[in-house]
Amino acid sequence: MPNSLTPAQSQSYWDDGYLYPIPALSPAEAAEWRAKLEALEAEWLPADLPQPLNTYKRVNAQVVMPLAHEIGTHPAILDAIEGVLGPDVMLYSVEFLIKEPRTKAVVTMHQDLTYWGMGEIDGLTTAWLALSPATRESGCMDVVRASHKNPILPHEDTFDGDNLLSRGQEIRVDVAEKDKVSMELQPGEISLHHGLTIHGSGPNVSNDRRIGVVLRYLTPKISKSGGERDYAHLARGEDAHGHWEPSPIPAAPFDLAALAVYEDIRKLQTAVMMRGAKKASSFYEKAD
Would 119 be classed as within a structural domain? Predict the structure, then answer.
């Protein structure tokens, strides 16, 4: 059924700025997707691609990886998204956010909408799907309750090598440990969080990879605040506004047509994401 959330769950999302855990897949389905991802990694890591494989996994994977598009348009996940965004849902981006075992990689506390050029909107939400256990030990996501009721707060770029964010961005506010809610998930479960919710995660000190799939969805009525071009895929319902160019569905991993569109999207998003940055990131060049 569309909209798998109860009214109480939807209200909790809007009150707190997040919702978890939401069962979306069976553990067996999550294990199958993990196996497909790791097979793709093994096959394509040595390939001569225009960008490093990790760039494609981390930025708009749905454009060049059929698996990413399959995950982003899975009915059970879309049912949950519909519970907070309504019946018209566009898939904006998919990324595989992986922390290898016993590593220092972190995600500093930040707000997603800071550099996306959409302003302070309600019409975007992020789903976080666990393909392996996301626990405190493995570096699950921490959120701050009701922090989505703030505007976009000042951030600073760190470009720290252990920071998984594109600019190493971090809010200029100290978040006390007591104010963090750890959203632990088991494989197949998802969480949702608002684009203004303050969130981050610690290192993975476990012996397994922490594999998360970050899925960003928006309503067709929103657009880039500066009128810039960008792409999204209509995953459910109707688009009566036409603010977004249709993102292609990849026919095969990294086919030439998909790679060409991918580079167009990366160029467009670089101009917005890296505006004002003092240097390039590992995923985006420095904006002109």
Answer: yes
Domain annotation covers residue 128: yes
Q: Which of 195, 5, 40 is nearest to 119 (CA)?
A: 195
Q: What is the DSSP string of 106-135?
A: BEEEE-GGGGSSS-S-SSEEEEEEESS-B-
Angle at 110 between CA 105 and CA 115, to 5 degrees: 110
* CA pseudo-torsion sign 199, 204, 205, 209: positive
Q: Which domain holds residue 26?
A: 7-273
The count of structural domains within the chain is: 1
Report the CATH number that the domain containing residue 127 is assigned in CATH.
Answer: 2.60.120.620
Residue 225: pLDDT band (50, 70, 90) is confident
- What string of DSSP letters covers 5-28? S-HHHHHHHHHHSEEEEEE-S-HH
Contact, 194 vs 209, CB < 8 A? no
Neighbours of 166 (CB within 10 A): 21
What torsion do the CA atoms of 192, 29, 235, 61 make, to the nearest 10 degrees? 80
pLDDT tens across 111-146, in order? Answer: 999 888 899 999 999 999 999 999 999 999 999 999
Residue 278 is assigned to a structural domain of this protein: no
